[in-house]
From TrEMBL:
Signal peptide: none annotated. The chain crosses the membrane at residues 26-45. Belongs to the membrane fusion protein (MFP) (TC 8.A.1) family. It comes from the Bacteria. This is Efflux RND transporter periplasmic adaptor subunit. Residues 124-197 form a coiled coil. Keywords: Coiled coil, Membrane, Transmembrane, Transmembrane helix. InterPro entries: RND_pump_MFP.
Amino acid sequence: MTNNAPQSTSEGIPKPPGVGKSHARWLWIVISLITLFGVIFLLVMEEDTADITRTGTPAPLQLVSFEKVQTGPETLEITSFAEIRPRWSAELRAAVSGRIDKVHDNALAGEAVDKGTTLIEIENSRYVAELAAAELALKEAELELLKAKNANYIAQKEFERSSRKAPNDFALKIPQLEIAKQSVTSANARVRAARQQLEDTTILAPFPAFITRRFVSPGQMVNVGDQLLKLVDNTRFELEAEIGRREWNLLQKPFEGLEARITGQAGELIAQAKIRRGGGFLDEATRQYKIFLVIEETAPSKVLSGDFVKLSLPGITISEALDIPASSLTKDGYLWYLDSQDRLQRLEPLVLSRRDDRIIIQAPAGEHSWRFAITPLVSFLPGQKVYAREKEK
C-alpha cells in the first residue's frame, strides 16, 4: 500500500550557511551596548556625589603681610640715567712732518699720563736749522733798525744846527726807520713760528688722561695732520641727563651748584656730581629737559668713562606724602591696602619719586594712617576678607 500524502516542501532543503551565527552576533552587540550604558550611568552618578562634602568650619582666610605707613612730609629724588663721559677727549695729530724718532712707553695704549708728559718725539734737525735762520734774520733786522735810528738822529741834528726845518720825512729818514721797525716785527714773528714748529716735534699730553689708542711707531714718516694718539681725560667727567616735564616741575630750583648722587648698577654710591646747567632748551628728538652735571675728580675712584649710571637729583618737599615699599605697586600701577575691617581695597596712586626700594606717592585725602600689602597677588579682589599680619621691622 502506497502513502499518497503530500510531503513538506522544507524537508530535505539545507539552511543557508551563517544564519545561526548572525543571530548570535546581534545578541552580543545588544548585550555590550546595555553594559556600556550601565557603566556610563554609574560613572555619572559617582561624579555627582563623590566631591560633595559637608563641613561646619569655613575656609581659612588668605594671609596678607602689610606695612603701616603714616602721611607726612617727604623730600623727593628725581631719578634719571646717563653715561659718564670725559670732559676732554682729544685725537692728537702731527703739526709738523718728519720721521718718528722716539715713542715713549707712556704713549702705549692703556697708560695713564699727567699733563705735560712727553709721549712722542719727531726728528727735529730741520726745525732747529729753521729756528737758527730765523734768529739770524732777526739779528740782521735789529741791526738795520739801529742803522735807521742812527740815520734819523743824524738828520735831525743837522737840521737843528742849521736852524732849518726839514722839508719832508725823507729828509729825516723816517720811512727807512718805519721799514726797519716792521722788518724787526716780521723777523720776530718768524722766530716765534720756527720755535713753535720745533716745539711741535715733541708731542706732550695736553691734560691728565688715559691713552686709548696709538697710531704710529718709531721710524715711521708722518705728515701734517696724520693721527698720532687718542686720549681721554681721567680726572674730570661730565654727565648729560634727561627728564620729563613732570619731573622738571618736581626738581628743586634753583639747582645750579646742587649735588646729585651717582649710583652704579648694583646700587652702590660711585660719586657726587654737581649740577652745572640745565633746562635752557628741550631735546629735539625726545622733547625732554636736559641737565648737565660735572664730576671733579682729583684722585683715582670708582668713576669710569663710558659707565652707564643712575642719577638722583634733588627734588622739592611734599607736605602730604607716603613712603611705601616699591613691591607694593603692581604691574598695572595699583596699590592694595587694608581697611579697618581687614578687607582688601585698591587705589591708583600718583607716584612722585623712586628711592632705592621705596616709592613716594601723593597721599590721598582723608586718611593719615595706611596699611599697604607688601606683595599683592593677582588673586586679590576688592572687599575680600583676609588675615592681616604686620611686617616685622
